[in-house]
Amino acid sequence: MKLKLVTAGILALCLGAGAVFAAGEPQVVRQDLMKKIGGSMGALGAIAKGQKPYDAATVKTALSTIAESAKDFPNHFPAGSETGFETEAAPAIWQNPADFKAKAEKLSSDAQTVLASMPADQAGVGQAMQTLGSECGACHQTYRLKR
């Protein structure tokens, strides 16, 4: 009985250590950043579609998250991280890093610009979604693998 308990404990520690190790991998970091951006776009989309009422704090948080995450995003594509951890990063990222970085900076800059003028209602959030969504789509078209 004790052997089973000890074995189960060791297995749990190994699995936990594997998860901690994976969390620091660039592929995982950039996936987490994309999830933050996606969640923020989802929050804005819900307001733009009238599924949620306009809430200035939600809009501000979402725009800030998009701006910060997009600015940091290009820092997590070192050589050797082209594959693994179910990455959807296209080889074009490493072939044209300047354009990739420029697209991420544009998304960050656009989010900061929208934040500075802070949409005041559902229609303003809808316009922000169009601006930011077109930036997301342009980058995904070139730099995200289709699965």
Query: Secondary-structure element order, as H and E?
Result: HHHHHH
Domains (count): 1
How confident overall, as mean pLDDT?
89
In CATH, what is the class?
Answer: Mainly Alpha
Number of helices: 6
Q: What is the overall silhouette?
A: globular
Which CATH architecture is right? Up-down Bundle
Give the class from helix and strand content and strand pairing: mainly alpha
Strand content: under 5%
Q: Provide the CATH superfamily.
A: Cytochrome c/b562
Question: Approximately how much helix is present in the residues?
Answer: over 70%
Count of extended strands? 0
Ranges with pLDDT <50 over ≥5 residues? 5-9, 13-21
Query: Major sheet, described briefly?
Result: none
Radius of gyration: 19 Å
CATH topology: Four Helix Bundle (Hemerythrin (Met), subunit A)
Span between N and C termini? Answer: 46 Å
